[in-house]
Recover the amino acids of this structure.
């Protein structure tokens, strides 16, 4: 007879008890007349019995305790991550507040400097190039102010 | 009071660590047996179990209860066992490159001997199962070692029953071929 894959798969199903009663009866009859399928079934039985004889390893209490410990470490890691995330969020908030304050301060100083420049006459102030920025003008103003007699 | 797996999973998902540890106590023995069947070495089996429970702990919030906790954990374990198998295969490949053509000796074919009884082939079967690829190995182990039905395997692996049939058939054909190589 032709020994095709479909038959072999069915031998496997028969071996595992996965055929219904009718299919099983047909396979039984087939096995009586087919040496190749009979050989397949013998091999499958030998493999199953061999694997069945292998002892199933039981977990020891030490191994189980280490699993608990590994999960506890993961729990702590999760907690640390949450704290880190909160830390990053606070740091980002602080950094953005710092930037906003700096901008506000710079703008404020620059505004006051312009106001004072307008009220102060003198060649040193006039010589400062506008492109050098508000901070240089402010420095020049402060240096000149230090030389005044009425300065404390 | 005995709590169901589902209750424990729900409690664990809301941050009850002890509920998760109760799930470990309940399922670690079965999962360890499966991991050991798939990996052969106790150290590997322990690593696989640890990674499985750590993964489950991190993902417990995503557990939707459509499958049982046992099925869900077993799926995670099979993925981890497959990763371990691939990692060990790479390591064995590298070590065989370093050690020479035949590697360290662990992978040598033993001299053919007459094996007529199931007791004779039992030890060889451990070695042969370890040589199967992850898909074939897991299906053989689930069927032969843990006695799962085709429908249970199909549900666990989320594959059609026909795929279970054909995959198991091919895995057994591979095992039979390996056994034949051992026979005189």
């Amino acid at each position: 007879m032709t020994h095709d894959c479909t038959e072999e798969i069915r031998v496997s199903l028969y071996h595992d008890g996965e055929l219904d009663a009718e299919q099983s009866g047909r396979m039984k009859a087939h096995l009586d007349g087919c040496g190749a399928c009979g050989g397949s079934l013998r091999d499958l039985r030998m493999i199953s019995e061999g694997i069945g004889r292998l002892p199933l390893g039981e977990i020891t209490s030490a191994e189980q305790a280490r699993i608990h410990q590994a999960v506890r470490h993961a729990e702590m890691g999760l907690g640390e991550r949450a704290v880190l995330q909160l830390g990053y969020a606070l740091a980002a908030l602080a950094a953005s507040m710092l930037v906003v304050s700096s901008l506000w301060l710079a703008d404020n100083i620059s505004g006051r400097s312009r106001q004072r420049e307008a009220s102060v006459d003198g060649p040193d102030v006039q010589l400062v190039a506008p492109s050098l920025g508000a901070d240089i003008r402010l420095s020049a103003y402060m240096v000149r102010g230090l030389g005044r007699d009425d300065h404390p | 009071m005995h709590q169901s797996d589902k209750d424990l999973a729900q409690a664990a998902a809301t941050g009850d660590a002890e509920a998760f540890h109760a799930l470990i106590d309940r399922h670690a023995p079965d999962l360890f047996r499966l991991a050991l069947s798939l990996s052969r070495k106790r150290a590997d089996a322990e690593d696989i179990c640890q990674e499985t429970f750590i993964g489950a702990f991190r993902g417990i919030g995503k557990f939707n209860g459509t499958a049982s906790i046992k099925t869900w954990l077993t799926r995670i374990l099979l993925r981890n066992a497959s990763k371990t198998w691939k990692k060990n295969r790479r390591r064995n490949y590298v070590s065989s490159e370093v050690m020479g053509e035949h590697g360290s000796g662990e992978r040598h074919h033993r001299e053919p001997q007459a094996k007529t009884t199931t007791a004779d082939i039992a030890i060889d079967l451990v070695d042969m199962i370890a040589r199967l690829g992850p898909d074939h190995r897991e299906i053989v182990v689930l069927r032969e070692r843990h006695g799962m039905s085709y429908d249970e395997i199909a549900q666990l692996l989320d594959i059609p029953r026909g795929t279970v049939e054909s995959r198991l058939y091919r895995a057994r054909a591979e095992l039979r071929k390996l056994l034949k190589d051992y026979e005189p």
The interface with chain A takes residues 17, 20-21, 24-25, 28-29, 32-33, 36-37, 42, 45-46, 49-50, 53-54, 57-58, 118-119, 121-122, 125-126, 129, 140, 143-145, 149-150, 165-166, 168-169, 172-173, 175-176, 179 of chain B (CB under 8 Å). The first helix of chain B runs from residue 5 to 13. Chain B is about 75% helix and 0% strand.
